[in-house]
Amino acid sequence: MFSLLSGLWKYLFTKTELFTLIVGLDYAGKTTLLEQMKSMYLGMDPLPEEKITPTVGLNRTRAHPNWTEVLVTWDVGGQRSLIGMWDRYFNEAHAVVFVIDSSDTVRMDEARSTFHTVVADPRLAGAPVLLLCNKMDKDDAIDPDVVADAFGVTDVPDHNMHVAPICAKDGTGVTEAIDWLLAALQTSPRQIIR
Ligand SMILES: Nc1nc2c(ncn2[C@@H]2O[C@H](COP(=O)(O)OP(=O)(O)OP(=O)(O)O)[C@@H](O)[C@H]2O)c(=O)[nH]1
Ligand SMILES: [Mg+2]
């Protein structure tokens, strides 16, 4: 009887932890996205825009998108001096979210090459990759299909890849993008302890 009850308890209350690494160049909107996710999945008030400063180090959040899973997200600063820190999380990450500022045409090439360095890393082999085209509210935002072409996402081996438009500021597109990620994690070859 005890083992039946403890099994039921475990079934109801044990959640699968899904480790997700959020990276991208500085100013792309990663921390704004994290604040939006806190609001959507934890019911917390997001930090006001003026309180979000460039990340020096790491922001970590445990979000609850549903009853059975916890999305443990690591948002690492994107300044050049911090990019070298990203790979500390590669071995443990189940998935990668790469955020770009869709309105920043000047740094698009830098974003593209940084993206390719990340997805080519063997420590991330098999991890689903979500490329988020952020700041879609801006008039000069590039179309996500154009970004997908420019980044050559269909030519990247070893990853289930998806490109999605979002506006981290007001949350547009975020639920759909995270839903894709959760579904991709279900079929991911990376070992997830459930
Ligand atoms: N218009 C618009 N601005 C955004 C959006 N998301 C973020 N921003 C702005 O972009 C700037 C940078 O946002 P952050 O979230 O700090 O960017 P970050 O990627 O975390 O930057 P680092 O921590 O330096 O790596 C801030 O001024 C945000 O308000 C968006 O969807 N639309
Ligand atoms: Mg940040």
From TrEMBL:
<feature type="binding site">
    <location>
        <begin position="134"/>
        <end position="137"/>
    </location>
    <ligand>
        <name>GTP</name>
    </ligand>
</feature>
<dbReference type="GO" id="GO:0046872">
    <property type="term" value="F:metal ion binding"/>
</dbReference>
<dbReference type="InterPro" id="IPR024156">
    <property type="entry name" value="Small_GTPase_ARF"/>
</dbReference>
<feature type="binding site">
    <location>
        <position position="55"/>
    </location>
    <ligand>
        <name>Mg(2+)</name>
    </ligand>
</feature>
<dbReference type="GO" id="GO:0006886">
    <property type="term" value="P:intracellular protein transport"/>
</dbReference>
<dbReference type="InterPro" id="IPR027417">
    <property type="entry name" value="P-loop_NTPase"/>
</dbReference>
<dbReference type="InterPro" id="IPR006689">
    <property type="entry name" value="Small_GTPase_ARF/SAR"/>
</dbReference>
<dbReference type="GO" id="GO:0005525">
    <property type="term" value="F:GTP binding"/>
</dbReference>
<keyword id="KW-0342">GTP-binding</keyword>
<feature type="binding site">
    <location>
        <position position="78"/>
    </location>
    <ligand>
        <name>GTP</name>
    </ligand>
</feature>
<dbReference type="GO" id="GO:0043001">
    <property type="term" value="P:Golgi to plasma membrane protein transport"/>
</dbReference>
<protein>
    <submittedName>
        <fullName>ArfRP1-family small GTPase</fullName>
    </submittedName>
</protein>
<dbReference type="GO" id="GO:0034067">
    <property type="term" value="P:protein localization to Golgi apparatus"/>
</dbReference>
<keyword id="KW-0479">Metal-binding</keyword>
<comment type="similarity">
    <text>Belongs to the small GTPase superfamily. Arf family.</text>
</comment>
<feature type="binding site">
    <location>
        <position position="31"/>
    </location>
    <ligand>
        <name>Mg(2+)</name>
    </ligand>
</feature>
<dbReference type="GO" id="GO:0003924">
    <property type="term" value="F:GTPase activity"/>
</dbReference>
<keyword id="KW-0547">Nucleotide-binding</keyword>
<feature type="binding site">
    <location>
        <begin position="24"/>
        <end position="31"/>
    </location>
    <ligand>
        <name>GTP</name>
    </ligand>
</feature>
<keyword id="KW-0460">Magnesium</keyword>
<dbReference type="Pfam" id="PF00025">
    <property type="entry name" value="Arf"/>
</dbReference>
<dbReference type="GO" id="GO:0005794">
    <property type="term" value="C:Golgi apparatus"/>
</dbReference>
